[in-house]
Amino acid sequence: MKKILIAAITLFALFSTACTKQNDQIRVRFHNTLDQDITDARMEFDDTNQTAIGLIPAGATTDYVDFDYFQVGDSWPMGSLKGTSEGEAFSAWSGMWCLTGVTLSQLEPGDYQIDIVRFGSGPEAWYQLKFAE
Prior knowledge:
Elements: H1 2-19, E1 26-32, E2 38-44, E3 50-56, E4 65-67, E5 71-73, E6 76-77, E7 80-85, E8 88-93, E9 104-106, E10 110-119, E11 126-131
């Protein structure tokens, strides 16, 4: 009987530990504020750290996407969102330049939303990524 009680307490302790474990995943969803779909979207940080996003419909927000790597600089996303929009290559980034005193770090685990916004019009327009406020 004593062995059964010890086994039951051990199993309870293991289940309790597993259920209270902190989620250490970076999860990001993308909100497309534009009036055009972004297809085949991917977030690129460098040649090896890239994550596929897929379709980001116009005016919509994606489901959360899990990231193992996500670099930020002074609270701005540091990668580039690349894809296709209206048959043309699409690219959006934070507008922060490296080597200008920006402190780079890894994003802390948690849930985040990034807004994709347009600045300007016509051929001079550019697209920015920023964390939702």
